[in-house]
UniProtKB/TrEMBL annotation, chain C:
It is found in: Periplasm. Belongs to the bacterial solute-binding protein 5 family. Gene3D superfamilies: Dipeptide-binding Protein, Domain 3, Periplasmic binding protein-like II. This is ABC transporter substrate-binding protein. Pfam families: SBP_bac_5. Residues 81-427 form the Solute-binding protein family domain. Keywords: Signal, Transport. InterPro entries: Peptide/Ni-bd (IPR030678), SBP_5 (IPR039424), SBP_5_dom (IPR000914), TAT_signal (IPR006311). It comes from Acetobacter conturbans. PANTHER family: PERIPLASMIC BINDING COMPONENT OF ABC TRANSPORTER, PERIPLASMIC OLIGOPEPTIDE-BINDING PROTEIN-RELATED.
UniProtKB/TrEMBL annotation, chain D:
Keywords: Cell membrane, Membrane, Transmembrane, Transmembrane helix, Transport. SUPFAM superfamilies: MetI-like. It holds the Pfam family BPD_transp_1. Its main location: membrane. This is ABC transporter permease subunit. It comes from Acetobacter conturbans. The lineage of its organism: Bacteria, Pseudomonadati, Pseudomonadota, Alphaproteobacteria, Acetobacterales. PROSITE patterns: ABC_TM1 (PS50928). Residues 75-264 form the ABC transmembrane type-1 domain. It is found in: Cell membrane. It is a multi-pass membrane protein. Belongs to the binding-protein-dependent transport system permease family. The chain crosses the membrane at residues 21-39, 78-102, 200-221, 241-264.
Length: 607, 320, 522, 272
């Protein structure tokens, strides 16, 4: 498959000694990328690997002769498909972009114009560059949609970006990039924002079009497993400097550079947790007990249930000192569950107790002690930390509010607890890195001396290495402080490494509830299995294997479905469904390993 | 189906909210005018306002009744669609106000036709070339124009173009307009003066809206597709900023009906703003009321329209 | 009754008074021409603009009314009543007056003028619902009755030799019997009402059936009102209008430099400070004396009127009036004496009521500020309180211890005295009470002998000068601007474009504008 | 307890506003009457609308008074009055705007309806009616103008705050049980100071304009107090003679308002 070792024609892309600089406000110019050089041969796919801030996206954009506001290409030579990109005047650059070289952005939801139908945008490059008439472009777009297995390819173009899922948009964006048949396509972290299950569909689509269209590619990512599936060669960037370059196999199997090794280590699953021996059968009162929680919207129907359900009869006991994991894809209701527990999402029926006392649905009605002992750490540290308040002030306020001493030493202690230097107290959130922000976010929760911390996808927005460090920190804190955690994620790796027990949510239903020890042992709910399989692995043929497995199942349907009718919520996507799945609510039974599974099939069937 | 129902509900809510404001203004204006010193009897008699003359006239106009009773009488009339008659001229106030309103709408319309494109153009170009010399120059210029009192702008314009150069008429009397040429000549100075007032704010707000949009990912994407700046603005940005821009425009236009007393007075233009100033001076309460209602309704109509545009532009995408 | 000799005397007076005005109105012996459209911009105009003669209260109203209506008599350039709709006026005792109407006069709707119309027109002023501006004057008429189709007999409460002057007021114009609707005008005047939009404009077209065969030259006239000074002058300068009322003294030079005419009419109009004598510091006559001495009349004349005024002597008759008391010593600006008087009475360390002024009373704010400044120089603290123009006359004027007023030239000395100085007068601004004055007033109204009456008026002026709380620093020269193509304007003691009657006299000389501009001094 | 950090926060914000410019105008406002060579009401010349001369640096006005002296006094009252108005209007607008965004529901609806009602009546008319009803004293003018401009500030701030109150840090504060006052002042407001400052600048312009336009209609400050708009207005006739009496106050208005706005805009630049 890989073509290294063979004598190659001159490279299609050649970057020599690229210098990119940027400035903030009226500050001094600082280098973003310093002396980067690499070549990409025709029809080759090069991976640009690096953390956020490594300059990988800037390099990718520079290939198109584009620098973001405040940045500029300060030096070096870029040749793409015979064009000298750094020398081209604006008009020529315009006819080059979108026609010779195309770009697939990380967040398709944001990169599509929300006010225009998708088809107009997909065929726009073709019309802009007068590559083909409109009707032909539409036909080609539909062809590409089909190629990438988009549902209803004939009509999907009439829709608007917010109506489609991230995975679908990412494929549409690929179609948009390919509409003019460009020689070079740049993939900028195209699957980072997607669920693992969706990522598979998208990656497969990319592979298919690459096979059919045969373009040269640059794939920007921080995910080595994805690199393994997609790229022929890889360049590892850190702080704007190339650390290592080689074939994908080389980089993955025998990384030479320390940084590459660290990346690889972070990508490898590891168990950080010494499982707490907590059970819900004992005499210990659960710190948090969610019972038959129903959350919905659109008013209540005649049966007392909401017209549209987000959570259906979810129960979840959390023991003191335990780490409870909740996993599921976007839209499964896991964030809603967290919000309900946090008191910012009213519920229809069911109840929540905290340390034996009922929690009021509204935060205002809860006692000061309950508010204090139940802390939420939200996904996006950018939003959680007040950008106008220094780190010290943020922590100080929590301390004074709860009547604790709020001196510098205490703040230093809190920062130390999350492994941050106390000098950071005077900094403001915009000056911090993503990992630092998330640590401050944790410190803020810890400042209240909580009994239970709700963690809502706290690592989702972070780079692999940083996320791993946060997970390490969590476990250390768990050991040191003995507090309970409710850990919500879509990342099975993370879940495995920190949790004691796991609840699997699908479409608002708890389909499985299992001790982490049982996760490695069959049987499991078919959806749990699917989640397991979707975690990318670092072998090159993993994607092929998963796809061949999946082809046995049926076309997936959007996850968020109404659960009003009877039957199993997963029936539509289940590869092993039987007739009864469509009509009857599945029973809950306990597997030999201790997992509570909600399925019509028996333990033997699922094993 | 449900989308349409939701849309209609949202529209009804908007309209209902406007009605609340309208009722608030009606009640407030009535009672505020009630605390004004003197009434129409005083105003009509002026120097001849001897106590017996005033009280007789007051009695005949029902002004000696308690304010609440007068309010009830007025509201009752209103509910029957009767806005009342002017206490001064005894003509129906609706006819008086609507005659002036037409003039005002004409002036406002022409001003909008001229000012809105200029403001959008200035704001957009300033956003595209932000933090450049051009941007700063536009900002300085618009601020300067907004800050100079409009009576000075208007008077200076008249003195230069009418008195010194004899190019344009000094007055914008509606009755003198017989052709397109005389229309343009009569309107050019009032319209320019008014445009000076509103272009400043509109262009500044447009610039802010545009900068917001230009920073979005989809604009970057369009650049990377090889689209030209004009194509990006027209094809991509405009459809997205229609709603906020309409809001900007609505706020500015609402000023053009009621906020133009000075321009009306300098150019002797018979608009509704001067009618209301007159009616306040004459304490002609029914007329004050209908003018206030018209201003309020116009403002609410424009802002509600802007809200509806916002609703529809998001609805269009949601409903598809 | 009124003798020819009287009128001749007044004619002589007019020449003397109008001497200065000749400068702006070249006495060219040109023959008036018929035809032409004239646009006139007056000052105040509003919603309250009216076609009801009884309600006319602003200059614009009077001008409009004068185009459409006639009175029984009209006041000429020296304010002497002349026959108009009444051909003849008779009275033996000055108490019962008989008016003989001109036969064959037609209203604009074709009806012929009869005594019923006159009776209706005069009686309606007594109805409070009419909101007549001259209700007080009308009350002096005990009865108004028809005496045949062309005779009207009016019986007064008491004899009044000046009664015809009262009927010369525009408000007493004659309308058709029974008229209640004033959306248009149905009068006997020289113009018919072609359009009337309150606050916007009035359009008048010549009445071909006008009873007076000579005079009235122009075909049509549009009357608008521009309250903003600068805009009004600009409209004249740009040629948008042909005549403007009330030229600001500061712009006289500009208008003349640009070849426009400015007509100066000396009038009895004044802006006064009234010190009430029934409340506040004005109860002390020495306070009143001090304030009179504190008026720097020359400075007011220079700063406020730029010299377009005559010195006032704290009595209401202007120097041009035939009854003006020349023997009265002039009150002079004497801050030292004022200070001494004030100090003596302890007013300097006392909180004094504010000076009430308003844009409604012409230039009163400026005069108040100048007075305030003079006061501060002698250590007297006087606050100025400016009131909004609307509601000033009914809500503020005469309500405060120290308040400014503004009085237009009245039709006769008798009217001035009886309306503003008699003890029972409704507009006795300073609330001055003098039984001697009241006696003299009653006496003067019966006195047919001109010399005797003059003597009585002299004494009345002295009484006012010495006793009343009225400070009249200046008499204002009325200034009207016109394009050179407009002819026929002549100064008038009533000011305001020939006592608001200009429409009957002006004519258009299409060639004059060009010629005049050429010959105008740069 | 909580006052200290509040004070600390505000003290740390204030120096970031372009202080020198504001200080300059405030000093001029306070010292202007002292620096004036003549008493502002004093007639010093028999010539009205005199041109610039050594005696009268900016000539004389329509009554023959010294323009420079009147300008110095008028600048003071304009700056102080409009500053007071702007501060009052924007304080109210900011606070209520954020509260409305924060509380949503009925509070928001009622406040917004009320503000819409106020804003829909033309500002000049509201001011006119207020002056007619309560007289044109300084407190009445300041209060009326504040009330007139509060809804605009409210609208702007509510829009700005709507996006901020949905951010998680506000939620975190609410979950902690913080009082509304704390959330408004410490959590939300510091994140919108830039646009709020720009809005404050615009309100200041509007206040100066309204004061000028009020003087056009013959109401406004009581003599001998005067403001820049009135000075422009009362000397408007001097325009035809090119008199400095009308040009000087108009220029002062422009320099004052434009300078302040550019300074406030640059503050936005620093924060963002």
């Amino acid at each position: 498959m890989a073509r290294h070792g063979i004598m190659q024609p001159p490279p299609l892309i050649s970057v020599q000694n690229l210098q990119l600089t940027g400035r903030r406000g009226r500050g001094l110019e600082t280098p973003i990328v310093d002396g980067v050089s690499f070549d990409v041969a025709e029809k080759e796919m090069l991976a640009l690997i690096g953390e956020s801030g490594s300059g990988k996206t800037s390099v990718a954009l520079a290939l198109m002769g584009y620098a973001r506001r405040g940045c500029r290409i300060a030096g070096g030579k870029i040749r793409v498909a015979g064009y000298d990109v750094t020398e081209m005047p604006p008009a020529e650059l315009r006819s080059f972009r979108g026609k010779t070289i195309a770009y697939i952005a990380q967040n398709a939801g944001a990169a599509f114009n929300p006010a225009l139908p998708l088809m107009d945008q997909v065929i726009e490059p073709a019309l802009l560059h007068h590559v083909m008439p409109r009707q032909v472009a539409i036909e080609r777009a539909i062809f590409l949609f089909e190629l990438m297995a988009l549902p209803s390819p004939g009509t999907i173009g009439a829709r608007y970006s917010h109506e489609l899922s991230g995975g679908q948009l990412q494929r549409l964006m690929a179609a948009m990039a390919l509409i003019t048949g460009p020689e070079v396509v740049i993939f900028d972290e195209p699957t980072t924002a997607l669920d693992v299950t969706t990522q598979i569909e998208v990656l497969e689509a990319f592979r298919t079009v690459r096979r059919e269209e045969g373009f040269t590619g640059v794939y920007v990512t921080h995910d080595l497993a994805v690199v393994a599936q997609m790229a022929d060669r890889a360049v590892v960037l850190k702080n704007g400097v190339v650390q290592e370059e080689g074939t994908t196999e080389q980089i993955l199997s025998a990384p030479r550079h320390a940084y590459t090794q660290a990346l690889l280590a972070a990508n490898t699953p590891q168990v950080r947790n010494a499982p707490t021996q907590a059970t819900d059968s004992g005499t210990v009162v659960p710190v948090l007990d969610v019972r038959d929680l129903v959350v919905g919207y659109g008013g209540t129907g005649p049966d007392g249930r909401p017209r549209h359900t987000i959570l259906s009869d979810v129960s979840l006991p959390v023991m003191p000192g335990e780490t409870m994991g909740i996993i599921g894809e976007s839209g499964c209701g896991k964030s809603t569950l967290i919000r309900a527990i946090a008191g910012i999402q009213p519920w229809t029926s069911g109840g929540i107790t905290f340390e034996g006392e009922a929690l009021a649905p509204r935060i205002e009605a809860r006692s000061a002690a309950q508010r204090r002992h139940l802390q939420l750490v939200a996904q996006n540290a950018d939003l959680v930390l007040n950008p106008a308040m220094s780190v010290g002030d943020t922590l100080r306020r929590v301390l004074t509010f709860n009547g604790d001493a709020a001196n510098g030493a205490e703040i230093g202690r809190l920062l130390d607890m999350v492994r941050l230097p106390s000098a950071l107290a005077d900094r403001f959130p915009p000056e911090l890195s993503g990992g630092q922000k998330q640590r401050v976010n944790l410190a803020r929760a810890l400042a209240a001396r909580p009994r239970l911390v709700l963690c809502d996808e706290i690592t989702a927005a972070l780079d692999t290495v940083v996320a791993a460090a946060i997970l390490d920190l969590m476990m250390e804190l768990k050991r040191e402080l003995g507090i309970a955690w409710l850990f919500v994620t879509h990342d099975l790796h993370a879940l495995r490494s920190v949790c004691d027990r796991v609840a699997v949510l699908y479409a608002g239903h708890r389909v499985e509830f299992t001790p982490i020890s049982a996760l490695e042992e069959a049987p499991h709910h078919p959806y749990t299995r699917r989640l397991e399989n979707s975690v990318p692995e670092m072998r090159a043929d993993w994607l092929t294997d998963v796809i061949s497995l999946r082809d046995q199942g049926s076309e997936p349907v959007p996850a968020l479905s109404s659960s009003r009718g009877a039957g199993c919520c997963y029936a539509a996507r289940c590869p092993v469904r039987i007739a009864i799945c469509e009509v009857a609510t599945p029973p809950v039974w306990r597997s030999p390993a201790g997992a509570l599974i909600s399925c019509h099939l028996t333990s033997q069937d699922l094993s | 189906m449900t989308m349409n129902a939701a849309l209609i509900r949202a529209l009804l809510r908007l309209v209902g909210a406007s009605l609340v404001s309208l009722v608030f203004v009606t009640v407030a204006v009535f009672f505020i005018t009630a605390v004004l010193p003197g009434d129409v009897a005083d105003a009509l008699l002026g120097q001849a306002a001897t106590p017996d003359a005033v009280s007789a006239l007051r009695h005949s106009l029902n002004l000696d009744k308690p304010v609440l009773v007068r309010f009830v009488i007025w509201v009752t009339g209103l509910l029957h669609g009767d806005f009342g008659v002017s206490l001064v001229s005894h003509r129906p106030v609706l006819a008086m106000a609507s005659e002036r309103l037409i003039h005002s709408l004409l002036l406002a319309g022409v001003t909008a036709l001229f000012a809105v494109p200029v403001a959008l153009l200035l704001g957009t170009t300033a956003a595209i070339f932000r933090n450049t010399l051009f941007d700063r120059a536009v900002s300085l210029l618009t601020l300067c124009i907004v800050s100079v009192p409009e009576f000075l702008v208007a008077t200076l314009a008249v003195f230069i173009f009418s008195v010194q150069l004899h190019l344009l008429p000094a007055l914008a009397s509606i009755s003198d307009i017989h052709s397109i040429g005389s229309f343009l000549a009569s309107f050019s100075m009032p319209v320019t003066t008014l445009a000076c007032v509103i272009v400043g704010q509109m262009s500044r707000m447009t610039r802010a809206v545009m900068i917001d949009a230009l920073g979005s990912s989809w604009v970057e994407m369009a650049v990377l597709k090889g689209a030209s700046p004009a194509h990006i603005i027209l094809r991509h940005v405009i459809p997205n900023v229609i709603a906020p821009l309409f809001n900007v425009i609505a706020l500015s236009l609402s000023y053009l009906l009621g906020g133009v007393v000075i321009v009306e007075s300098v150019f002797h233009y018979p608009g509704i703003a001067s009618l209301m100033v007159d009616s306040v001076a004459a304490r002609d309460i029914p007329l004050v009321q209908i003018c206030a209602l018209i201003f309020c309704a116009a403002y609410l109509f424009l802002t509600t329209l802007a809200d509806i545009v916002a609703l529809l532009s998001s609805q269009r995408r949601h409903a598809a | 009754m009124l003798s020819r000799r009287d009128m001749m005397k007044q004619g002589a007076l007019l020449v003397a008074a109008g001497g200065g005005a000749l400068r702006s109105c070249p006495a060219r012996a040109a023959q008036p021409l018929r035809g032409g459209h004239v646009r006139v911009a007056s000052t105040t105009g509003s919603l309250s603009d009216t076609l009801d003669p009884a309600r006319e209260s602003m200059a614009t109203d009077y001008m409009r009314g004068a185009m459409f209506y006639d009175g029984l008599v009209t006041l000429d350039a020296t304010l002497v009543p002349q026959p108009a709709l009444a051909e003849r006026i008779e009275s033996d005792d000055f108490r019962t007056w008989t008016f003989h109407l001109r036969p064959g006069v037609q209203f604009h709707d074709g009806a012929t003028l009869t005594s019923a119309d006159v009776v209706y027109s005069l009686r309606r002023h007594l109805d409070p619902l009419v909101a007549s501006q001259v209700r007080f004057q009308a009350r002096a008429m005990r009865s108004v009755r028809a005496d045949g189709p062309l005779g009207v007999v009016i019986e007064l409460d008491a004899p009044n030799i000046s009664f015809p002057s009262v009927l010369g007021l525009n408000n007493f114009a004659i309308i058709r019997d029974g008229t209640k609707n004033f959306e248009t005008a149905n009068g006997t005047g020289p113009f018919r009402c072609a359009a009337f939009q309150p606050g916007i404009r009035s359009l008048a077209v010549r009445n071909p059936d006008f009873w007076k065969t000579d005079g009235v030259w122009i075909d049509s006239l549009e009357l608008i009102s521009i309250s903003d000074d600068m805009a009004r002058h600009n409209a004249l300068l740009s040629g948008d209008v042909d005549i403007i009322a009330e030229v600001n003294p500061r712009l006289v030079a500009l208008l003349r430099q640009r070849g426009m005419g400015v007509m100066e009419s000396p009038t009895g109009t004044y802006t006064d400070l009234a010190i009430r004598q029934d409340i506040g510091p004005g109860k002390n006559p020495e306070f009143v004396q001090a304030i009179k001495h504190l008026f720097n009349r020359d400075q007011v004349a220079d700063s406020v009127w730029l010299g377009f005024c005559r010195l006032g002597n704290d009595q209401p008759l202007p120097p041009e009036d035939r009854y003006y008391n020349h023997d009265l010593p002039q009150t002079v600006f004497d801050p030292d004496r004022a200070k001494w008087l004030l100090n003596k009475n302890g007013f300097l360390n006392q909180e004094l009521p504010p000076l009430i002024c308003s844009p409604a009373a012409n230039a009163s704010v400026d005069i108040a500020v100048l007075l305030q400044n003079e006061a501060s120089r002698i250590g007297m603290k006087l606050d100025v309180r400016r009131m909004p123009a609307d509601g000033y006359w009914s809500q503020s004027w005469m309500h405060f211890p120290l308040g400014f007023g503004n009085v237009n030239a009245r039709g006769s000395a008798d009217m001035t005295f009886s309306l503003a100085f008699a003890s029972a007068a409704p507009w006795n601004e300073s609330h001055w009470r003098s039984s001697r004055f009241d006696e003299l007033l009653a006496l003067s109204r019966r006195e047919a002998d001109e010399a005797k009456r003059k003597a009585i008026y002299y004494e009345m002026q002295t009484l006012i000068h010495d006793g009343s709380g009225l400070c009249i620093p200046n008499f204002i020269t009325s200034l009207d601007g016109y394009h050179q193509r407009i002819r026929g304007l002549r100064p008038h003691l009533g000011g305001h474009l020939m006592g608001n009657n200009f429409s009957r006299f002006i004519w258009v000389d299409e060639n004059a504008g060009a010629r005049e501009t050429e010959s105008a001094p740069a | 307890m909580t006052v200290a950090p509040f004070a600390r926060r505000w003290v740390s914000v204030i120096p970031r506003i372009p202080g020198s410019l504001i200080l300059f105008w405030l000093l001029l406002a306070l010292l202007g009457p002292v620096l004036a060579p003549f008493a502002p009401g004093e007639v010093v010349s028999r010539t009205v609308f005199a041109p610039i001369s050594a005696h009268h640096l900016l000539g004389t006005d329509y009554l023959g008074r010294d323009v420079l002296s009147r300008l110095l006094c008028g600048t003071g009252s304009t700056v102080l009055l409009c500053a007071a108005t702007t501060v009052l209007a924007c304080t109210g607008g900011v606070f209520l705007g954020i509260i409305a965004a924060l509380k949503q529901g009925l509070t928001d609806t009622l406040l917004s309806r009320f503000m819409d009602g106020v804003i829909s009546i033309p500002s000049l008319l509201s001011a006119l009616v207020a002056v007619a009803a309560f007289g044109s004293s300084v407190p009445v003018l300041v209060l009326a103008m504040s009330l007139i401009y509060m809804p605009g500030s409210y609208r702007t701030c509510r829009m700005l705050a709507l996006s901020i109150v949905r951010r998680d840090f506000v939620l975190a504060a609410q979950m902690r049980g913080e009082k509304s006052g704390y959330i408004v002042l410490r959590e939300v407001l510091p994140n919108m100071t830039g646009p709020v400052m720009a809005d404050v600048g615009l309100r200041f312009i509007y206040a100066v304009r309204l004061l000028s336009n009020l003087s056009f209609l013959g109401v406004g400050l009581q003599p001998p107090l005067t403001d820049l708009g009135s000075l422009t207005r009362e000397n408007l006739l001097g325009l035809v003679y090119g008199a400095p009496a009308v040009i000087a106050p108009a220029l002062t208005i422009a320099v004052l308002t434009v300078g302040l706005n550019l300074a406030l805009d640059s503050y936005k630049g620093k924060a963002g």
